[in-house]
Specification:
Number of strands: 0
Order of helices and strands: HHHHH
Shape: globular
Helix content: over 70%
Number of domains: 2
Largest sheet: none
């Protein structure tokens, strides 16, 4: 049985997604400007320290339930998150916020292909088409006149 979603909730969801996209996209410009004053790792340290403090204030009761396993798995995930943000922020020193945002955004397209490699379940034509278009866009953003890759 199909359940319909009230229009008000749909509009609220659409507006929320739009706001998230605006904040996400503007963050690249903010980062680029901040990198003129501080190093990438100082920026990331400040950003994530502030985020951690906010989370502690909001969820301090739940944090008491954290187990050793939670800390270990969280640290592993955190390491990869740190590496990703580190490479992205260092890369922003050498390119424009628009290119950096586009390259970061194309990482989403990789997910269906990784899913296929892991599960052998075909992702569908829509995912393939999106992957091809995003890869073409990434190529045209990154390639110079001689179709070689350039720095930044």
């Amino acid at each position: 049985m199909e359940q319909s979603i009230p229009r008000k909730k749909m509009y609220l969801a659409d507006i929320s997604l739009l706001l998230v996209a605006i904040f996400w996209g503007s963050n690249f410009v903010i980062m680029k400007n901040a990198l003129e004053l501080i190093t990438p790792f100082v920026y990331l340290g400040l950003r994530f320290t502030l985020a951690a403090l906010i989370l502690v204030v909001l969820f301090w009761k739940k944090m008491r339930l954290t187990t050793r396993r939670d800390l270990l798995t969280g640290s592993l995930v955190g390491f990869f998150l740190f590496a990703g943000f580190g490479f992205q922020t260092i890369g922003l020193l050498f390119t424009t916020p628009g290119k950096s945002g586009f390259i970061t955004g194309t990482s989403v397209v990789i997910v269906p292909f990784l899913f296929f490699l892991i599960t052998r379940i075909y992702p569908g034509w829509g995912s393939l088409a999106g992957g091809v278009l995003a890869t073409a866009g990434l190529f045209f953003l990154s390639a110079n006149e001689a179709f070689g890759f350039k720095y930044g």
